[in-house]
């Protein structure tokens, strides 16, 4: 049953216009579900996505931010969004070159909330 839930969440995330690749990752960096459109080191992607979000949350705490929703990493040839999905998981997505990061962030928020409630 858990496997089916994870697969359904991955399919929902994949259906967002502009998402090229995605993963549902535990807060300790283990990939629970994924769809990648490219070859990459999956364990490192999961571990580093979790590390990036945890580091950003720590910085947010230091500067007394109310909450950390997500981190966006922008480069000339790629954009990655990492968003918390409850206490146990996060979503990491790689965007297409033509994607609107703000629109994808807005689309991911309700999915992240559902994941947090379900898992």
From TrEMBL:
Q: Name one Pfam family in it.
A: Robl_LC7
Q: Where is the Roadblock/LAMTOR2 domain?
A: 6-95
| Gene3D superfamilies linked to this entry | Dynein light chain 2a, cytoplasmic
What residue ranges are annotated as transmembrane? none
User: What is the name of this protein?
Assistant: Roadblock/LAMTOR2 domain-containing protein
What is the organism of origin for this protein?
Methanoregula formicica (strain DSM 22288 / NBRC 105244 / SMSP)
């Amino acid at each position: 049953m858990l496997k089916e839930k994870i697969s359904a969440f991955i399919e929902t995330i994949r259906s967002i216009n502009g998402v090229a690749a995605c993963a549902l990752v535990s807060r300790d960096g283990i990939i629970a579900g994924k769809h990648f459109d490219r070859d990459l080191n999956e364990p490192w992607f999961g571990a580093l996505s979790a590390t990036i979000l945890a580091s950003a949350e720590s910085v947010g705490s230091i500067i007394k931010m109310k909450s950390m929703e997500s981190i966006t990493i922008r480069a000339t040839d790629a954009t990655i969004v990492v968003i918390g999905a409850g206490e146990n998981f996060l979503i990491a997505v790689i965007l297409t070159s033509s994607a609107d990061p703000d629109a994808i962030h807005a689309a991911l928020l309700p999915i992240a909330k559902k994941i947090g409630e379900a898992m």
